[in-house]
């Protein structure tokens, strides 16, 4: 299924960002300064690629169909599982931004701790979340949604992707990811 393959591929890019975040946090623990610019780029990628672009397709298309068509199990899996975790990820990113602002204005250790806490909270949440989606949610959708709905999901995801390409979403944020990966190599 095109849309599931694409979402798994996007997960790979998000996992690369999570590795960057871990390396940036370890650098701080090793005594390096907080690189405000790099963390702002991390936030930009998280908000615009991971959330708006990737979660946008999930929430507006695939998860909506699952909630509408897969009964109580679909509703619980999506509304009480995946969507709650999406919101928790947004909270970690907002709190990370707040901690960065506080540290920039008043570089105290407590605000540095906030940066590390929220950044790693986001990493740990998304590592588990991505695994659940790849191993459980997507396969459940593929097995249980009717073929015509799966085809409709694919068509709508392709249209979403085309619009994003016209806005250079993928190009912009994958370039940011490459830049960050070059600064925090494996």
UniProtKB/TrEMBL annotation:
<protein>
    <submittedName>
        <fullName>Hemerythrin domain-containing protein</fullName>
    </submittedName>
</protein>
<dbReference type="Pfam" id="PF01814">
    <property type="entry name" value="Hemerythrin"/>
</dbReference>
<feature type="domain" description="Hemerythrin-like">
    <location>
        <begin position="4"/>
        <end position="140"/>
    </location>
</feature>
<dbReference type="InterPro" id="IPR012312">
    <property type="entry name" value="Hemerythrin-like"/>
</dbReference>
């Amino acid at each position: 299924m095109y849309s599931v393959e694409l979402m798994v591929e996007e997960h790979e890019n998000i996992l690369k960002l999570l590795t960057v975040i871990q390396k940036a946090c370890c650098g701080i623990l090793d005594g390096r300064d907080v690189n405000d610019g790099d963390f702002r780029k991390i936030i930009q990628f998280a908000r615009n690629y991971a959330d708006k672009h990737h979660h946008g397709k999930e929430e507006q298309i695939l998860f909506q169909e699952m909630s509408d068509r897969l009964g109580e199990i679909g509703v619980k899996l999506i509304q009480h599982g995946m969507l709650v975790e999406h919101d928790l990820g947004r909270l970690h990113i907002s709190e990370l931004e707040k901690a960065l602002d506080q540290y920039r204005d008043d570089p105290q250790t407590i605000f540095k701790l906030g940066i590390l806490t929220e950044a790693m909270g986001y990493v740990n949440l998304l590592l588990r979340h991505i695994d659940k989606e790849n191993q459980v949610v997507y396969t459940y959708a593929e097995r249980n949604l009717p073929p015509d709905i799966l085809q409709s999901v694919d068509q709508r995801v392709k249209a979403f992707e085309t619009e994003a390409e016209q806005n250079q979403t993928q190009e912009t944020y994958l370039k940011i990811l490459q830049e960050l990966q070059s600064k925090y190599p494996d």
